[in-house]
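Possible race condition, two jobs.
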Amino acid sequence: MFAVINRLEQLVETLGGLARGCVLVLVLLVSANVLIRYGFSVSPVALQELEWFLISPIAMLGIAYVLKHRADVRVDFIYEKFQPRTRAAVDLFSALATCLIGLFLAWVCWRYMMQSYQISEGSPDPGGLPHRYLVKAFLPLGFALFGLQGIADTLRALRGLLAPQPMPEEALP
């Protein structure tokens, strides 16, 4: 079970690193676009659209990465008062929901992306970027990664529920 969790989270970590790299490239690209626009009075459509091409992996690969690092929004003031087994049960329920939602959305988005691929969707603007399906490909990939992180969290919660619990201190002689 540990090996499966580690492999899934290693994948999330690696693709999260790709998302972080895209943030840096996006910042540099926006800066270059501003300099080109105001310095040379030129506004290349392809460079503007490339910004949107970079936002897709940042958002979609970042979802699972944020979940893995527990940087998501949680209501912890109630959760922290629960016993370890109750926490594990809550974690199991939320992980299963994450898994099901992520994998369902990946399945829905796959058809959306494939439709874009089949019609060779590109930019409607002159000078824009072709292959818009590449941007849309991050939708099923990101949601599938989110679902896989849900599987890792499910396995971790199951391990917490199935592990023998130590006796409370008040029960010891």
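Job #2 (started ~2 s after job #1):
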Amino acid sequence: MQTDRNFDNLVEKFEQRVYGTLKGGLRLKLIKEDLKTFQQSSALSIWDAGCGFAQISAWFAERGHDLTLCDLSSKMLQRAQQHFTDQNLSATFLHGAAQDLAADLPQFDLVLFHAVLEWLASPKATLKAVADKVAPKGHLSLLYYNRNSIVMSNALKGDWRLQFLLNDHYMGKGKRLTPPNPQFPHAVLDWLQQWGFRVKVETGIRVFHDYIPPAAFEKTDSQELAELEYRYCRAPDFRHMARYIHLVAQRH
């Protein structure tokens, strides 16, 4: 992957398949739980680096926080702006890649970097550029696609996928909305430690949901599944197998 992924041509599909579903609702619920103390605090300066449809930023804006939002996709950014306008919320909107904009931005009390890392040509370098914009004693909220889950889901499907797993050539073999650059949790945690961050919260999002076969999923009670997800999402033995991992890290 030589360039960062731009989602101008997939805005509608993302809206339907990612956000308008049980799994999208679970994701928002858990992220909001992890960030609730920040949302309810006195006004913070917040940068949403890769804002998408900006649901989390809008939630912060409702409490009067000072928001700066950016996205590589002009269509995503337009949707975010329209959402803010419809809700009578205010923010600064910037079009462009986070790593390109970072040099001209100040440091922030809280930086949101949600579901961007896995779509980048240079994940570590870009995350470093974004993390550098966290003020001392400030916080980074990072949501990323977990590479462990790619290994597990392919292994459970068996067949031809096992050889790709053994050869470590399994990336890029899946669906169109499967990110090309998911990260292993141990690698991300090592980077953050090297850069002077201490992880305070770590939550697995969709620990079980994505591993349930379609036929079984149709017979599964959604409320029971949500309760099961909630029970295990922060358990150390389970969270690193989830589809996504959300963490909150403080800069020393």
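The mean pLDDT is 91.
Logs attached separately.
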